Amino acid sequence: MDEPLFGGLSRRDMLIDRFANAYIITITLLTLLVSLYRTFTTGTWQHTLLALCTLSFALVEVRLVNWYRRGDLEPHFRPLILHLTLSITLLSVLANMYFFT
Q: Where are the transmembrane segments (predicted)?
């Protein structure tokens, strides 16, 4: 097995990264399900497009977290990953508020 480029991760970092992945996947899938429900009840397809945009950002986030966990990204990418997590959370909350107004 190849050695990670920037050293291994601590157990704490791995738990944080796994929690971030699970959190992002959960909140994005909930937003997608709500958007599909609202699309079928109201007949407006814009809800689904907004959820697909959120899903695309979440896929990028999950990929970055996996690269970070494997050691392929430098440690200074961690604040970027956390910032992206907060941005996706805000986007999902705003999308859900939009769906129900």
A: 20-37, 49-68, 80-100
